[in-house]
């Protein structure tokens, strides 16, 4: 029997061209005639365009099935073979205006689209965020996954995401050969091809020589493999126990210091990140000016290209996780804004000035001034008008924004207060242990939002982190001065933020100590090497 | 210290919003797919979806709670599609209004089948060879243009379109086969 596709082959060929946007006027006329001809023709057509529509929103359907490029396979006309990427350019099938629309859609939908995801995300917390997979589930012994209705099939390819075992055991193998065994009640986040974060429970690692340097981050320490087999266990209090079965590992103390910190005090070349080794490219429209603190800062002129581009951080040898964070985050900056905040009053639907943004779609992280129609729901809801916003994606809650209305009410500053010519200290934090997002201005919590304790952050992707702009360059550049930018993979406490504010108010950096001293201290943090048969227990650092 | 407004209006809005989330989270994917049926291009669909989502929220007060949400929401979306067509009619190629109305009716009648086809699609996707998944991921997932994909994989644009057509056909036939097997 002839297939339905064959029966309507010409119609569906034209439908395919329509879906791809390549159909001509005559062809469309022909397609209309064919579709209108009979109910079966309309059904065949609808089924085809629905397939196209489903594929357009089927990240979860494709989840775990991302193909890995096989560089040896040649391209040809007859069949399409995956070849090594020749370009890392960001997708540009969208115009800036529609991209902006997409952001709004994504924010609205993903802020409230949790139900769909929870039904369709059997593999990991969300679709792998890295374009390429970095690991594979190779064994699963009677495993039950936490909060997931589906199961992860053995052989599933894994990108960036969180695995939570409830019962049973699971084994994953990285492309570099590293094998990780997860025990019951283990929660582990794959943060890059060379690092994972053990949030809770036990994991055993068997790391081959070619993957020396593989890291397991825990709340208490970075466990760096030096060619070995070892186990790590993280308890409820964040305490970490490491036992070496064979070979050697190094434990490095985790400090309550930024992952990345740019003081902008170096006067030439890229902006230097003092802790993570990033180099921030200062791009046209942004220029060095005298510091709000220290020697230098950066002025942004609100032009489309003005930004300090930090890259995505994945190439950094010291912090291979880039801007991915799971259990906590702090974004901190000193600013002197000149944002007009006119927003809707000038007929624009959006008026944003970005302080910091990593535009990873629904997994974006942002700290920005905003004045819009609140088409993206804020949590908690606030009145329309100029605001300072902190956007973050939380597992099970989707992307949402916490916003401080700059309305002068209830002790909040107005925009005019922030434009008084002085430097102002802005901080955004999220702490998964408490499940609380906070926004601070000048050392004081001005807005907060709570979710259930233990809720993890979902972040990461291909986008570059940008200070003073949105990487997509859609007229969201900052106007004014930004200084002392810091990014942490944990939440500063209210007391720490207050101390940082006191420090900058008295003219020093956040830590009230010479930067050189801090850098030296960070490099000399406590280290301990463990060899076969040895173990150690480290406590999580407290504020 | 929370500085959320505590007046009753905000509280009521929040309750409404939570209820809206309940409905919308179950339907938004179907609504986006519905829009795609008429406009085909993701960027256009997103623009319409954005507007429609907001109108759904704004008009949520008029939604009768004893009626199903999806048909009501599709009606809102279809109005937005018509509005978009009027606005962008000259820039794009469209079916006639009569055929669009007919397809909208047909789509509603075919809703159950389309749900089954979606479920079958998930299964069929898992059976695709890696190279076919890759092109779908580049086009639909990474949202690259055919030109960009062609550059990336060093093939002609024509080859990319042919490959997309071939993969969609393969999925279409796989879905048909699965549903036929289930029925028999």
How many domains of chain B, as an integer?
2
Radius of gyration of chain A: 25 Å
Q: What's the average pLDDT of chain A?
A: 80
Total strands of chain B: the figure is 0
Please give the count of helices of chain B: 8
Shape of chain A: globular
Distance between the termini of chain B: 63 Å
Assigned CATH class of the largest domain in chain A:
Mainly Beta
Largest sheet of chain A: 11 strands, mixed
Task: Outline the biggest β-sheet of chain B.
Answer: none
Measured by DSSP, the beta-strand proportion of chain B falls in: under 5%
* H/E element order of chain B: HHHHHHHH
CATH fold naming of the largest domain in chain A: Jelly Rolls
CATH architecture classification name of the largest domain in chain A: Sandwich
Radius of gyration of chain B: 20 Å
Global structural class of chain A: alpha+beta
Structure commentary:
The complex is a heterodimer of chains A (543) and B (184). Chain A contains ten helices and 27 strands. Chain A has helices at residues 4-7, 9-20, 25-36, 39-56, 59-62, 96-112, 114-120, 415-418, 494-505, 515-523, and strands at residues 135-145, 157-158, 161-174, 179-182, 187-192, 195-207, 215-217, 221-234, 240-253, 260-262, 271-272, 279-283, 286-290, 296-301, 307-311, 328-337, 350-358, 365-372, 387-394, 398-405, 424-431, 436-441, 444-450, 465-467, 479-488, 527-531, 535-538. In chain A, the strands form three sheets. In chain A, strands 1, 2, 3, 4, 5, 6, 7, 8, 9, 26 and 27 form an eleven-stranded mixed beta sheet that branches. In chain A, a hairpin with a 5-residue loop joins strand 8 (221-234) and strand 9. In chain A, helix 2 (9-20) packs across helix 3 (25-36) and helix 2 (9-20) runs parallel beside helix 4. Residues 59-131 of chain A have low confidence and may be disordered. In chain B, helix 7 (146-153) crosses helix 8. Helices cover 79% and strands 0% of the residues of chain B. Chain B has helices spanning 8-39, 42-58, 69-88, 97-109, 111-127, 130-141, 146-153, 157-183. Chain B folds into two domains: 1-109, RNA polymerase sigma factor, region 2, helix turn helix motif (Rna Polymerase Sigma Factor, Chain: A); 111-184, Arc Repressor Mutant, subunit A.
């Amino acid at each position: 029997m002839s297939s339905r596709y064959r029966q309507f082959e010409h119609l569906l060929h034209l439908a395919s061209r329509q879906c791809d946007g390549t159909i001509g006027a005559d062809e469309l006329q022909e397609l209309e005639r064919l579709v209108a001809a009979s109910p079966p023709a309309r059904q065949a057509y609808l089924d085809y365009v629905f397939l196209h529509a489903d594929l357009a929103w089927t990240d979860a359907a494709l989840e775990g099935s991302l193909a890995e490029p096989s560089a040896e396979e040649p391209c040809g006309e007859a069949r399409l073979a995956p070849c090594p990427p020749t370009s890392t350019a960001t997708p540009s099938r969208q115009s800036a205006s529609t991209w902006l629309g997409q952001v709004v859609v994504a924010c609205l939908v993903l802020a409230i689209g949790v139900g769909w995801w929870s039904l369709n995300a059997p593999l990991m917390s969300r679709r792998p965020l890295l374009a390429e997979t970095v690991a594979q589930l190779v064994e699963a012994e009677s495993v039950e996954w936490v909060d997931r209705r589906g199961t992860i099939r053995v052989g599933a390819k894994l990108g960036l995401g969180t695995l939570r075992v409830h019962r049973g055991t699971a084994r994953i193998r990285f492309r570099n050969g590293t094998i990780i065994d997860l025990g019951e009640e283990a929660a582990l986040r794959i943060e890059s091809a060379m690092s994972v974060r053990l949030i809770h429970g036990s994991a055993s690692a068997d790391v081959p020589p070619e993957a020396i340097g593989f890291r397991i981050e825990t709340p208490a320490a970075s466990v760096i493999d030096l060619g070995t087999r070892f186990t790590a266990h993280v308890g409820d209090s964040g305490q970490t126990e490491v036992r070496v079965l064979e070979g050697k590992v190094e434990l490095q103390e985790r400090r309550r210091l930024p992952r990345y910190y740019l003081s902008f005090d170096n006067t030439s070349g890229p902006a230097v990140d003092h802790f993570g080794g990033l180099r921030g490219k200062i791009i046209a429209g942004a220029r060095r000016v005298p510091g709000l603190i220290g020697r230098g800062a950066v002025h942004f002129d609100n032009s489309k290209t003005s930004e300090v581009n930090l890259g995505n951080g994945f190439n950094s040898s010291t912090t291979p996780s880039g801007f991915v964070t799971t259990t906590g985050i702090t974004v901190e900056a000193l600013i002197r804004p000149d944002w007009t905040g006119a927003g809707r009053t000038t007929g624009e639907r959006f008026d944003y000035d970005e302080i910091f943004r990593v535009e990873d779609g629904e997994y974006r992280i942002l700290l920005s001034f905003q004045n819009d129609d609140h088409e993206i729901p804020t949590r908690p809801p606030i009145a329309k008008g100029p605001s300072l916003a902190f956007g973050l994606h939380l597992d099970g809650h989707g992307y949402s924004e916490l916003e401080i209305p700059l309305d002068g009410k209830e002790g909040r500053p107005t925009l005019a207060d922030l434009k008084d010519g002085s430097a102002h200290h802005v901080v955004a934090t999220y702490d998964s242990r408490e499940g609380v997002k906070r926004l601070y201005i000048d050392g004081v919590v001005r807005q907060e939002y709570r979710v259930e304790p233990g809720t993890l952050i979902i972040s990461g992707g291909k986008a570059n982190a940008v200070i003073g702009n949105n990487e997509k360059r859609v007229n969201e550049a900052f106007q004014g001065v930004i200084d002392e930018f810091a990014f942490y993979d944990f939440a500063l406490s209210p007391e720490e933020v207050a101390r940082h504010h006191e420090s900058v108010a008295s003219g020093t950096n956040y830590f009230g100590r010479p930067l050189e001293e801090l850098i030296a201290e960070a490099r000399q943090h406590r280290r301990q090497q463990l060899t076969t048969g040895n173990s150690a227990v480290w406590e999580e650092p407290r504020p | 210290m929370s500085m959320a407004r505590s007046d009753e209006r905000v509280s009521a809005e929040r309750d409404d919003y939570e209820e809206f989330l309940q409905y919308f989270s179950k339907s938004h994917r179907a609504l986006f797919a519905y829009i795609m049926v008429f406009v085909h291009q993701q960027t256009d669909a997103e623009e319409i979806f954005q507007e429609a989502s907001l109108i759904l929220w704004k008009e949520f007060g008029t939604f009768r709670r004893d009626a199903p949400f999806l048909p009501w929401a599709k009606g809102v979306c279809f109005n937005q599609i018509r509005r978009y067509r009027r606005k962008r009619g000259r820039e794009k190629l469209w079916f006639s209004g009569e055929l669009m109305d007919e397809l909208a009716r047909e789509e509603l009648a075919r809703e159950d089948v389309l749900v089954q086809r979606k479920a079958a699609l998930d299964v069929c996707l898992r059976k695709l060879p890696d190279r076919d998944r890759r092109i779908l991921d580049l086009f639909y997932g990474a949202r690259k243009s055919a030109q960009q994909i062609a550059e990336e994989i060093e093939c002609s644009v024509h080859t990319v379109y042919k490959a997309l057509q071939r993969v969609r056909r393969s999925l279409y036939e796989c879905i048909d086969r699965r549903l036929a097997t289930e029925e028999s």
